[in-house]
Amino acid sequence: MKKIIMFLEWGSILGLAGCGLWIFLKLPIETSQGFPQKIMYLHVPTFIATYLAFFVVFAFSIAYLWKRDLMFDQIAKVSAEVGLIFCALLLVTGAIWGRPTWGTYWVWDARLTTTLLLFLIFMGYFLLRMSVNDRDKEARLASVLGIIGCLDIPIIHKSVEWWRTLHQPSTLFKVESGKASPSISPELFTPLIASTIVMLLFYLYLLLLRYQTEIRREQLNQLLAETQV
Amino acid sequence: MLIGVEYVVAAYGIWVCTFAVYILMTKRRMRIAGQTVEAIKQRVSESSDNPDKTVSIENQD
What we know:
The complex is a heterodimer of chains A (229) and B (61).
Chain A lengths: L1 H25 L13 H28 L2 H33 L7 H22 L3 H16 L1 H11 L10 E4 L2 E4 L3 H43 L1
Antiparallel strand pairs in A: 1-2
Helix pairs in contact in A: 1-7, 2-3, 2-5, 2-7, 3-4, 3-5, 3-7, 4-5, 4-6
Chain B lengths: L4 H45 L12
């Protein structure tokens, strides 16, 4: 496990640095948005990593409720923590990108509001975990809230189609006559895909690092409980 | 002169700083938890070797 974490750490950090050099030194400046368009290479991969993190919460919360194995709950918990940070950075980078392109940091737009709602639900998820002392009860309640919270993700994804929003539609793909094709030019699309792959590796690294910490913390709690008995 | 550089610097800067702090804090938490586990195990084994000796587990974390 340690070797995998080290490989992912160096792989993702070097990958992120490589993507940064590619984006800032090689890519041309986009004509309509200018230099702030470079935020897209950070914002869109962060958005996909947020989706993945909360999908992992959803899947492992269901697995916990089904099998009642605390390992599943630990994975859901650490993924929710990493996802919450990605979600916060998604909101922040989006707001910063919105200022030069929309003229405002924030609007109560459907996409932005539902993403903020996701962030608040998972803040509540951790408050719930902190307020329950019984470990099994904590896992059970958090799993239910985790599943309910993740139901917001399809709403976020479809919000740009269901409501009239300021937020642009899907950056990666557009569907025309049943076929999906990139919605931006290949020159901009390739580094975006590369950044997304590196970001997902970075998510995996954070998940494993945090999971290892969680195992030690559980081990410590168990040891303290045994020693007190 | 590039227009909007400050927004790009702010977005990338906040992103990098947040994860740098998070990774350092996570590694620190892992190290402290590992050290505490080892310390408790050592004290428990010492006290089982010498039952007269009392064990205090307070202020470990």
